[in-house]
TrEMBL record:
GO molecular function annotations of the record: DNA-binding transcription factor activity; transcription cis-regulatory region binding
Name of the molecule in the record: LacI family transcriptional regulator
Source organism: Dictyobacter alpinus
UniProt keyword DNA-binding, yes or no: yes
UniProt keyword annotations, A-Z: DNA-binding, Transcription, Transcription regulation
PROSITE patterns: HTH_LACI_1 (PS00356), HTH_LACI_2 (PS50932)
Keyword Transcription regulation: yes
Domain of life: Bacteria
Length: 349
């Protein structure tokens, strides 16, 4: 790989002169500048990020603010796929990504250390629990910013997310069309910003079309991991009149509910129908394969980052929220209620 010294040697100038050409410093003659640029092209020399930053007054780094504990981040395939979309798009633009994971107790300090010091040209933020992203500080700093998810301040600008309300509607409509009426919901955290509320609202709208009200007692709150899905399934399925179906707001909690069913001799879907949300790799691995709502986290990350670069490059001043489509993927965990008693003549559990 060519170095700045190789360029200087070929162009017959000093290393300092090469640095001046790279950073577009004045007082370098056009003839000298031409020789240096030709040498750089011949040697396929790429200036380092610092030099490029001096030239274009940029750092060639974007920030990714993920307000989760590391254990949550690195165990959640959905979040990792968003990160993949951000990183791959940044790479296409020859940018690096700097990951921020602010703690609630030191949020101001993280923003001051990394954002106020000019380390990044823009940031992508991920939706989080309430209080995870400080929109006030970001607006105050004036750094180009796009949300991969919903903005905590609920402004309908510069954000990219899935159609969560439609996803909730499709999930419940599918179960209702199969004949289920006693339906439990394993929700995400009650203090999640917007996505959970949107999915619940879609579920309510579907049930209203069938003349049914969503019973708050049939909603349990997990934290998106497998263990919480197991625990909430236990709460709901040990009721005197257990639900015939569960709508789980992500696939990992659906897997937890499936484990509970298997451990308590409930056949899926004969005794219990399950539907998840996300369509990560998991639904095709578990047995039986999981019916779920498909969304595209990698596309969320890519679209958010593409629009961040449009903001950085002053191609746009802002953009209206982009809502990406979702779809129902029917596999083998949903069927008419209590199919075992109908088809096998066995008693209900």
């Amino acid at each position: 790989m060519a170095t700045i010294y190789d360029v200087a040697r070929l162009a017959k100038v000093s290393k300092t002169t090469v640095s001046k050409v790279v950073s577009n410093t004045p007082y370098v003659s056009e003839e000298t500048k031409k020789r240096v640029l030709e040498a750089m092209e011949q040697l396929q020399y790429s200036p380092n990020l610092a030099a490029r930053g001096l030239k274009g007054k940029r750092t060639y780094v974007i920030g990714l603010i993920v307000p989760y504990h590391a254990e949550h981040l690195f165990h959640d395939p959905f979040i990792l796929d968003i990160v993949l979309g951000v990183e791959s798009t940044a790479s296409d633009y020859d940018y690096s990504v700097l990951l921020f994971m602010p703690k609630p107790t030191d949020k101001r300090g993280v923003y001051d250390r990394f954002l106020r010091t000019g380390y990044v040209d823009g940031v992508v933020t991920l939706e989080s629990h309430a209080g995870g992203i400080d929109d006030t500080i970001l607006d105050e700093l004036g750094i180009p910013r796009v949300s991969a998810g919903y903005r905590e301040d609920l402004k309908q600008i510069n954000s990219v997310h899935s159609n969560d309300r439609l996803g909730g509607y499709l999930a419940l409509a599918h179960l209702l069309e199969l004949g289920h009426r006693n339906i439990g919901i394993i929700s995400g955290p009650a203090n999640f910003v917007v996505a959970v509320d949107e999915r619940l609202q879609g579920a309510r709208e579907a049930m209203a079309e069938w003349g049914i009200q969503l019973d708050p007692a049939l909603i349990g709150y997990g934290d998106f991991n497998v263990g919480s899905g197991y625990q909430v399934a236990q709460q709901l399925l040990e009721r005197e009149q257990r639900p015939s179906a569960l709508f789980c707001m992500n696939d990992r909690m659906a897997a937890g509910a499936m484990y509970y069913a298997h451990n308590h001799d409930l056949l899926i879907p004969a005794d219990l129908s399950l539907i998840g949300f996300d369509d990560i790799a998991l639904p095709t691995i578990v047995e039986p394969p999981l019916t779920t709502i498909h969304q595209s986290p990698t596309e969320i990350g890519k679209t958010a980052t593409q629009h961040l670069f449009a903001l950085i490059n002053a191609e746009i001043e802002s953009f209206a929220t982009i809502t990406l489509p979702v779809e129902l993927v029917v596999r083998q965990t949903t069927a008419a209620p209590y199919a075992r008693s109908i088809h096998m003549g066995s008693s209900l559990k």
